[in-house]
Protein: tRNA (guanine-N(1)-)-methyltransferase
Organism: Nocardioides flavescens
Amino acid sequence: MRLDYLTIFPGYLDALRESLPGKAVDKGLIEVHVHDLRRWTHDRHRTVDDSPFGGGAGMVMRPEPFGEAFDELEVDASTTVVVPTPSGTPLTQELARSLAQRSRLVFCCGRYEGIDQRVLDHAATRAEVVEVSLGDYVLNGGEVAALAVTEAVVRLLPGFMGNAASLVEESHEDGLLEHPVYTRPASWRGLDVPPVLLSGDHARIAAWRRTQAEERTAARRPDLLRPASLGAAGEWHPER
Ligand code: 6GU
């Protein structure tokens, strides 16, 4: 997989050389290219933003640098353009699995109040475009979100994980939050590991873990247990 990042803060993406994506580079699973968007500006001040038509606070990223970047990077139908934005589709394990199937991702990191809509409309004429949100809160720009999407995707690439079982067992792969985990020592500061985990009875351990996962999910993320069209009391809302 080839990954390109368009950003006015290329240093933000230095973290890609560490951690999971760094290992994937070393293994030859991914190729990473971080680009300073100002490379595709032509004025003395290397301007990438301007005030919004129609008025309002903040600045909007101008379309031309992105357009020239798409041309130089040969963004085409083999590419998915990923645009981190709080107004995007929520990032889920399912979306990460879908992005992991693609041969090429180009991340467009916006700052200020966002990117001129024509960047997305134009990109959609030559590539697949996915606007992705990390959740219902606002970050200052797309860089941290691009890192999060990258890490969620890259660890799913075939050949990345040493232990395939750990991919299956973790939170969200089975639609539940993960059960709590413990390691040595069996007793620490007066706190004991649940005895069932020391019993050697693998069926009982699996059942205990399942119950813990269900209880956690019910307490923290009841939305994961309920179809969207059911209300909190289980009533049917076909319009949802
Ligand atoms: Cl993807 N971008 C920004 N700027 N803010 C966010 C976000 C993304 N997801 C949640 N907040």
Notes: The longest strand covers residues 80-90. The radius of gyration is 22 Å.
